[in-house]
Specification:
six-stranded antiparallel β-sheet, single chain, Rossmann fold, globular, Glutamine Phosphoribosylpyrophosphate, subunit 1, domain 1, alpha+beta, 2 domains
């Protein structure tokens, strides 16, 4: 796990290396183990590294392969890189490192930009082609790893966080009125490609951005899960589905053990993270490190769920760590937690996640987490009402009633007129999403938009921002794309 930034020019001028270096100053918590800057003509790349796979300097970034004429800056992990490496070696490729970064480079050379379809993992990366001048940026299927963009004149900058782009300078920081309406409507979510700032955009999940040397650019979406019933599974029983789901989860947690350092678990004591612990124990992980956070009781309400996490820890014999955060630590940590955000968030557990990550990072560098299960398996309260929508109704109004924080009129009463878009963009976005083919029922449509929009820019972003603020890599097995496809079918 790492952070990267860079700049591409379209006017023939050399890229601003100093601007790229300033981005890394802001990204350094994501990658405290080393930095690198590489520039060639109109492209400059900068990278900060968190050593997880191939701990040697041979895997330092930006990684240049002079024989292939390719350079990469990469954030994330490709879980199936050992298998891809063997396949590439069979095709005659020779490797100078043992990690997944070089596999990304060789895979790109072997299979082109659609190499992403072969990757099991979470990733954002940029590859530059020396001989053609083409630059390709990519983001993983479910947007687990971030990638922000700032385009001004003949220059495009990109980075693993929005604050890094601000550090580089010359960004329009005015509030985007459409984004503000989304933010006030969608539980503080601004759907991609927008951000709350007019001058910053984010690459959509499962998307390639190809920048040609003549200035042309194009986006390609390379993955779209279908929320339709699989006819090949029409005769499956409940037990068949249970067994298939269990096996897919086993595969997902097994994949996320790939590392050259120990892997632990953030154990809340809830169903999702407890399942992850149980499956890892089943995989033979002994004395697995698990971590729970709790707070002081307030008004007679308990501030922790240690009694549940303790049961799981005892059952599976984990090396369990409980962190109880005193109330006096919460308020002082608020400013730092906000500073760690790439975009504004109002989720109540952001500070808790931030403080937990601080403690966990003192003893381990990689953890698995139960994030994503509610969106993939329908765990939220607004899904059951979608089952009652009459046949023939897309379900847009039912979803808006159940999910929206404010109607357009309520937003209009909240913000000044110059910050209010002329029409209801939030409702239009849901209507357009629900009208797309590939989801059979209103509940399917709600699950699809939540998986592709809400999930990406609320829980997943929160996990990435708060853990990476301390150089902690969080892996999310419930967002294994094959598991997501199974649930969608």
């Amino acid at each position: 796990m790492c952070g990267f930034g860079g700049e591409v020019r379209r006017d023939g001028e050399p890229a601003d290396v100093e601007a790229a270096a300033r981005m890394i100053d802001r990204l350094r918590p994501r990658g405290p183990d080393g930095t690198g800057v590489q520039a060639q003509g109109r492209v400059a790349l900068a990278h900060c590294r968190l050593k997880i796979i191939d701990l040697s300097d041979r895997a330092a970034q930006p990684m240049v392969d002079p024989d292939l004429g390719l350079t990469v800056a990469f954030n994330g992990v490709i879980y199936n890189y050992p298998e891809l490496r063997r396949e590439l070696q069979e095709h005659g490729y020779r490797f100078f490192s043992s990690g997944d970064t070089e596999v990304v480079l060789k895979a790109y050379h072997a299979w082109g930009e659609r190499c992403v379809e072969r990757f099991h993992g979470m990733f954002a990366f940029v590859v530059t082609e020396r001989d053609t001048g083409r630059v390709v940026l990519a983001r993983d299927r479910l947007g687990i790893k971030p990638l922000y963009l700032a385009e001004r004149g003949s220059r495009l900058r990109f980075a693993s966080s929005l604050p890094a782009l601000l550090e580089a300078g010359d960004v329009d920081t005015s509030i985007d009125p459409v984004a503000l309406q989304h933010y006030l409507t969608f539980h503080s979510i601004v759907p991609p490609p927008r951000t709350i700032l007019s001058g910053v955009r984010k690459l959509e999940p499962a998307t390639l951005l190809i920048l040609e040397p003549d200035g042309r650019q194009r986006r390609e979406r390379y993955w779209e899960p279908s929320l339709t019933r699989d006819p090949d599974k029409a005769d499956w029983t409940r037990q068949d589905w249970q067994e298939a789901t269990l096996e897919a989860l086993r595969t997902a947690v097994r994949r996320r053990l790939v590392a050259d350092v120990p892997v632990g678990v953030l154990l809340s004591g809830g169903l999702d993270s407890s399942l992850v612990v149980g499956l890892l124990a089943e995989e033979g992980q002994e004395r697995l490190s698990t971590f729970s956070v709790g707070f002081e009781a307030v008004g007679g309400e308990e501030g922790d769920e240690f009694r549940y996490s303790d049961v799981i820890a005892r059952t599976y014999g984990t090396d369990h760590h409980r962190f109880r955060v005193p109330t006096e630590r919460m308020l002082p940590a608020l400013g730092d937690a906000v500073a760690a955000m790439s975009e504004p968030m109002v989720s109540h557990d952001a500070v808790g996640f931030y403080l937990l990550s601080e403690e966990v990072a003192k003893s381990i560098r990689v953890v698995q987490s139960g994030q994503g299960a509610d969106e993939v398996f329908g765990g939220y309260h607004w899904y059951p009402p979608m089952l009652d929508v009459p046949r023939g109704d897309l379900g847009v109004d039912a979803y808006a009633r159940a999910f929206f924080d404010r109607t357009y009129d309520e937003v209009a009463a909240t913000v000044p007129p110059d910050r209010l878009p002329a029409r209801d963009h939030a409702y239009e976005l849901v209507a357009a999403h629900f009208a797309k083919p590939g989801a059979e029922t209103p509940a399917d449509r709600a699950l699809r938009i939540d998986t592709q929009v809400m999930l990406v820019d609320d829980p997943v972003k929160r996990v990435d921002n708060m853990t990476m603020a301390w150089g902690l890599e969080a892996r999310v097995p419930f967002l294994d794309h094959e598991l997501v496809e199974l649930a969608a079918s």
